[in-house]
Design brief:
With 133 residues, this protein is α+β, with helices and mostly antiparallel strands. The chain has one domain (19-129): 2,3-Dihydroxybiphenyl 1,2-Dioxygenase, domain 1 (Roll). Helix content is 16%, strand content 38%. It has helices at 27-37, 87-96, and strands at 3-7, 10-14, 20-23, 44-46, 51-55, 61-65, 80-83, 103-107, 111-117, 123-129. Strand 4 and strand 5 (51-55) form a beta hairpin. The relative contact order is 0.18.
Length: 133
């Protein structure tokens, strides 16, 4: 399904999100977090190891990149939401690893989620859709 966004003089047809990327300052430290704590498996590296992609099945690709002043992390920027099978179990597992949450588990009409920072302060959401959503 394509979405048409009006942008000045022309319309852009968006057919999917190609990937979601998150800037980091220390690729080794960030890989440890995303791979060990969150369990992501790297599927591609480029830019001399400064760009790492993690394919998430048919839902897309998440990537981290270390590009200095050209792309900086921010606690106030975009948040990626990773769907999990059991939110409470994941929260317990991550807390046992010493990871602090910036927002404890919260319910909405369609989901339940919690937010934690990555090593650079980027916000990472772990998320569970409620049945029927």
């Amino acid at each position: 399904m394509a979405v048409t966004l009006a942008s000045g003089r022309f319309a852009i047809m968006i057919t999917e999100i190609a990937f979601t990327g998150t800037p980091v300052t220390d690729i080794k430290r960030s890989r440890e977090f995303y791979e060990s704590a969150l369990g992501l498996k790297p599927t591609k590296e480029s830019a001399g190891g400064m760009w790492v992609e993690y394919d998430l099945g048919n839902t897309g690709t998440f990537a981290i990149g270390c590009y200095g002043d050209a792309w900086k992390p921010s606690k106030d920027g975009t948040c990626v939401a990773f769907e999990v099978d059991n939110l409470d179990a994941e929260i317990s597992r991550l807390k046992a690893l010493g990871i602090k949450f910036t927002m404890e588990a919260m319910d909405t009409p369609v989901c339940r989620f919690a937010i934690l920072p990555d090593p650079d302060g980027n916000q990472v959401m772990i998320h569970k859709r409620k049945s029927g959503n």
